[in-house]
Amino acid sequence: MKPAGLGKADRERLSAILRGTKGTVSVAEAADLLKIPGNDVAKMLSRWAGKGWLSRVRRGLYVPVPLESRTTDIPLEDAWVIASCLYNPCYIGGWSAAEYWDLTEQIFRTIMLMTTQRPRERKLSIKGTDFLIRTVSEKAMFGLKPVWRGQIKVDVSDPARTVLDMLSDPQLGGGIRSTVDMFTNYLKSDKKNLDLLVNYADKLGNGAVFKRLGFLIERLLPDETGILMQCRKRLTLGNAKLDPQLPAENLITRWRLWAPKGWVKE
């Protein structure tokens, strides 16, 4: 679809909006730039989208359509930017952050997003990009690194926080096996920081994290007695599962952790 012509006033307004925004156009931003009531701006943006100059991402949010595009049904140029606009305060975490930090060679088609918002939809697809959304508390917004995506700054969990999030909930890493693979890569990399892992785990306040962390460190780095001792000191009462999504037949009493048979050394 070729963009339809715009009158002089519309061209000037659209140009002003595109100059004043960075990659996305929201009704609120456009209303502020044009000093026009939000309802009027919403109708204006919708009209421009109908003429092929903008593409609607979600209600109240648009992206410019490149002049060379033959359709307004364009794929997201940068899904991280869209996610940040829709769910801020938020950060890219789990397997998506692990990909960013080169902790995995797996390709995950779904963007893992952590936000303080409580959206109704936890799984959604926007213009062919799938998102999986998890809610975190405001206190959990730490261990983040800002990264530039074009002109937009987006937060992503740093390597240690990425690992701790996946140990807190192995589904954030695609399950315990892929989580352990990423953790192993972390321990072999120059990003490894055991003291920071303990510090972040303290801040998260999830007792199961120290049980999984201690168990895995004992398997992967048995000579790291310092962190093993710190994990044991922080063991909470009760037993957790290595992966809540898997059956677990064996209780490793020293870590108060239920694990599947294949994870228990004879």
Give a description of the structure:
The protein has 10 helices and 12 strands. Helix 1 packs across helix 2, helix 5 packs antiparallel against helix 6 and helix 6 runs antiparallel to helix 7. Strand 8 and strand 9 form a beta hairpin. It has 266 residues and is an alpha+beta fold. Among the domains are: 57 residues, Orthogonal Bundle (Arc Repressor Mutant, subunit A), CATH 1.10.10.10; 84 residues, no CATH class.
What does this entry show, briefly?
The chain is of the alpha+beta class and 266 residues long.
List keywords for this structure.
266 residues; alpha+beta; Arc Repressor Mutant, subunit A; 4-stranded mixed beta sheet; 10 helices
- Quickly count the helices: 10
* Low-confidence residue ranges: none
Spell the H/E element sequence: HEHHEEHEHEEEEEHHHHHEEE
Walk across the major sheet and give the strand order: 4-5-7-6
Helical amount among residues, as a percent range? Answer: 40-55%
Assign an overall shape: elongated
Which range does the strand content fall in? 15-25%
What is the number of E strands?
12
Main sheet properties? 4 strands, mixed
Radius of gyration: 23 Å
Q: What is the distance, rounded to the nearest whole angstrom, between the alpha carbons of the first and last residues?
A: 65 Å
Chain-averaged pLDDT: 90
